[in-house]
What we know:
heterodimer, A: alpha/beta, 9-stranded mixed sheet, two-stranded antiparallel ribbon, 6 helices, B: alpha+beta, Butyryl-Coa Dehydrogenase, subunit A, domain 1, Butyryl-CoA Dehydrogenase, subunit A, domain 2, Butyryl-CoA Dehydrogenase, subunit A, domain 3, 3 domains, 4-stranded antiparallel sheet, 3-stranded mixed sheet, 11 helices, 50% helix, globular, binds flavin-adenine dinucleotide, ETF_a/b_N (chain A), ETF_beta_N (chain A)
Amino acid sequence: MKILVGISKAPDTTTKIKFTNDNKEFDESGVQFIVNPYDEWYALVRGIEIKEAQGGSVTTITVGKEDVDPIIRKALAVGADDAVRIDSEPKDAFHVASQIANYAKENDYDMVLLGKETINYNGSQVGGMVAEIMDLPYISNASKMDLDGNKATIVRDIQGGKETLEVETPFVLSAAKGMAEQRIPNMRGIMAARSKKLEVVEPVDAEELTEVVSYALPPEKGDVKLVDPENVEELVELLHKEAKVI
Amino acid sequence: MADKFEAHDYYMMDEFFSDEQKLMRDSLRTWLKQEVSPIIEDYYERSEFPNQILKGLADHGCFGPYIPEEYGGPGLSQVTYGLLMQELERVDSGVRSTASVQSSLVMFPIWKYGSEEQKKKYLPKLATGEMIGCFGLTEPDHGSDPGSMITNFKEDGDHVILNGAKMWISNAPFADIAVVWAKNENDEIQGLVVERGMEGFETPEMKGKHSLRASATGELIFNDVKVPKENVFEGKKGLGGPLSCLNSARYGIAWGAIGAAMDCYDAALKYAKERTQFGKPIASFQLQQKKLAEMITEITKAQTLTFRLGQLRDEGRATPGQISMAKRNNVDMALKIGREARQILGGMGITNEYPIMRHMANLESVITYEGTHDIHLLITGMDITGINAFK
Ligand SMILES: Cc1cc2nc3c(=O)[nH]c(=O)nc-3n(C[C@H](O)[C@H](O)[C@H](O)COP(=O)(O)OP(=O)(O)OC[C@H]3O[C@@H](n4cnc5c(N)ncnc54)[C@H](O)[C@@H]3O)c2cc1C
């Protein structure tokens, strides 16, 4: 199996979020970036498992400037064979998807694996767009994948349950929790990553279809109001009149 | 409780480390949080070393990170070694001790003073954790003054006959080999490798420690042990042999102690912001802020001192005096932070819900082994005055 895995950066979950440029841009200064967990723990590791079981290769692809190289090195340390970086600022989903689709088309992969979303923007758009541009089947939110020859049996998480699908390669898949287990890079993997190829590729023309108007932080959490357990009426009253949830 | 530790880097020291160094450190941290933090209190309480973590420690490069690749190590820098020791001690000084002994006290002398055959025989297996080593220098009657040791060996054909006893030996109860320092027939100190199973060699465990409980400590007893001559280090004679190992280990301890201090500070800072008394978080009281502010100041000073020491060591220029200064300063700093941090947590501070009391108790060993707090001051004193105040 020849596998392409999308890897993107995301801020560490403990990051204090700030904005600049009139609240139009996320302020990256001082932010610690990690590999987007859905990409790393699920898409990448499942790709590596398939390669280990039946041979083939795992290439990672990232749209970004040089600052994402440490993230890519980590993916290589986890066990990808080589990496591609499309040298372009990843500003909107269509732009990113166009870059990935173009590279994937030219290089003929059996599957393109992505995380179901990034943990910062939660857009869940790239996978669907990549599949559409490539004219391939798209399986989103997949939590399990078994392979038999070129036929994959895939379990998807759907509202309140699960859906099982069969699809033949090639296809595009976005991975959710359950697809695989996190692999922490060990010393051998980190050292091996040194000599793995990281190819930088010029982007293709692809417009940005969206523009950020502004970002806003969620409102601060208010104080907790304690209600005496005996006083159910007051609780109901508060939920109705103040919280307006019943 | 899940390990929610966040590292503290007030002076942005991380900018001095390469991406690869940070990846090694952070990967080790992630692994420790998943595999070691959840079990360490239990092993500490039972006074047992968790043997199942040896392979993971090896996989993350904690055994001989600076040993060259030709002998099975990753051939990394001294700064990287320091960063790994810092992560280990952040979780437990006992875990760091096991790695320090394996790296600096067992692999280091074999690499520096062993024959080519010894290096090929032992180093690759020590790097993977397949083989665990210990280091026997201290004796029941000779601690700070190891030069007066009585353990000795005599030649006997193609063997030497080893007699004597060592005490306080970390990893001894389960080690496969021991690097032992003993006097030869010319009264010179020389190292040799003693293997488990050699007749007359025993390693009884020492019980009753109130400190470093998650590390196994024992004695080494030698009753006419027949050791093949090829196990003797011919490359070095005199006290300088063991002292160079101690330098390497002390350097790692200087980094490790910062880890323990950071863990205590991190727990205290979080607790102080969450715990409310008199209607306010206790972090809003000046007395508590003073403690926290002084802690991060001391941690930051230790980080800068130790990084510089790491640079010097990588350049082969760090002196024993400089290493003594950092070991002494950092362990003392960590111990003081442990005590202050414990108070910030009030009663909770003495429980095993938090790591502080364990770190504090551990650091009482760390401030004593590898040269006591006093001895390091004497080393500095001798270095700056040129006068020996030991005897
Ligand atoms: C948990 C643990 C693990 C250890 N692991 C190992 C190991 O793996 N291998 C090993 O070889 N050893 C090991 N040690 C031994 C350790 O290195 C010794 O305990 C240490 O060197 C001190 O020796 P001592 O305990 O005999 O104390 P002593 O040397 O008797 O010292 C007692 C006190 O006297 C002071 N003192 C001594 N000489 C002077 C002087 N000249 N001037 C002023 N004050 C002085 C000391 O500072 C100390 O406060 C370990 C110890 C512990 C506690």
